[in-house]
Amino acid sequence: MADSKARLGVLVSGSGTNLQAIIERCEDGYIDAYIAVVISNKKEAYALERAKKHNIAAVYIDRKSYQSSIEFNRKIKEVLLEYQVDYVIMAGYMQLLGLEVLKAFPNKVLNIHPALLPSFPGEHGIEDTFNYGVKIGGVTVHFADEEYDNGPIILQESIEIKDDMTMEQFEQEIHDIEHKIYPKAIKMLVDNRLKIEGRKVKII
Length: 204
Ligand code: GRF
Fold this sequence. Notes:
Blueprint: E1 6-12, H1 17-27, E2 33-40, H2 46-53, E3 57-60, H3 69-82, E4 87-90, H4 99-104, E5 109-113, H5 125-132, E6 136-143, E7 153-160, H6 167-190, E8 194-197, E9 200-203
Parallel strand pairs: 1-2, 1-4, 2-3, 4-5
Antiparallel strand pairs: 5-6, 6-7, 8-9
Helix pairs in contact: 1-6
The chain binds 5-O-phosphono-beta-D-ribofuranosylamine.
5-O-phosphono-beta-D-ribofuranosylamine binds near residues 47 and 91.
């Protein structure tokens, strides 16, 4: 019954390829949930179009319409509550999520980062990994907290950065991993298989 399924709210800022992977894995039943709403802080985010194509509510919230970050985040919380969201999934959401939202969804907010945290946090995880010269890169899915790219880690997957690899090839491989492990982590979350113990997340 559709109504018994968990409801996801997805926060985006960009092209939404991760959103697309999540939509598809909800639609094919791998994740026992559906996306109730997609919220973007960027009007032009192609992720909003992807949502509409799948008849998912797509909401743009303009930071500039709010006097403070607190008010802006309060609005995000209101929309998530309005759509009766159970879990919040940040999928390329390029803004720090406010405490208003985190407190409303304790241990129910996930983020994905295209590097092996705690290395290379921030906006340019892929480029920073590649340019540093490390031999291994990867992807991290973690619970979100009030700091960027910081909460307890759920899943990581690594790839070797070979000498002859171009930045473009590396980027593509990172995205391929993201589209595979984010649905996997979301499935674990929705299936209640994640137990947080301090900084550690046990998969039960
Ligand atoms: C992804 O690499 C994500 O890890 C990072 O931003 C990118 C978003 O891509 N935070 P998309 O919008 O899902 O295509």
